[in-house]
Amino acid sequence: MTSEHEETRLTPYGTYVAVWGALVFLTGITVGLSFVDMRQVTVLAALIVATVKGSLVLLYFMHVRHTKPMFLYMFAAVGVTYGIFIGLTFMDYWTR
Predict the structure, then answer these.
(1) Is residue 34 part of a domain?
(2) Is 4 part of any domain?
């Protein structure tokens, strides 16, 4: 009797520390952006930083980086949909 199981991949601790450092750095950028008065560009920059931070958490801490390609396609579809809705929101906001 054989059972199929997924191969366990271990991510080195150094990778987690590097991702944590990147998240702390990006949080500092977000805080710094809150003090800069650039109107709509500030909001757009904060959204871009938040998207990068969310992607790092998703890929490394939620282990999506090591999943099957179908899950990656689903996450890509969600990302494209997110981008479309954010783009439509900004187009509406800028035309008012």
Answers:
(1) yes
(2) no
C-beta atoms surrounding 83 within 10 Å: 11
Q: What is the band of 52 on the pLDDT scale with cuts at 50, 70, 90?
A: very high
User: Which residue pairs from 76-82 have beta carbons closer than 8 angstroms and sit at least 24 positions apart in sequence?
Assistant: 82/51
pTM of the shown model: 0.70
Sequence-distant (≥ 6) Cβ neighbours of residue 58 within 8 angstroms: 64, 75
Say if 49 falls within a structural domain.
Answer: yes
CA 48 – CA 70 distance, rounded (Å): 25
Q: How many CB atoms lie within 10 A of CB 65?
A: 13
The contacts of residue 59 (CB under 8 Å, 6+ apart) are 65
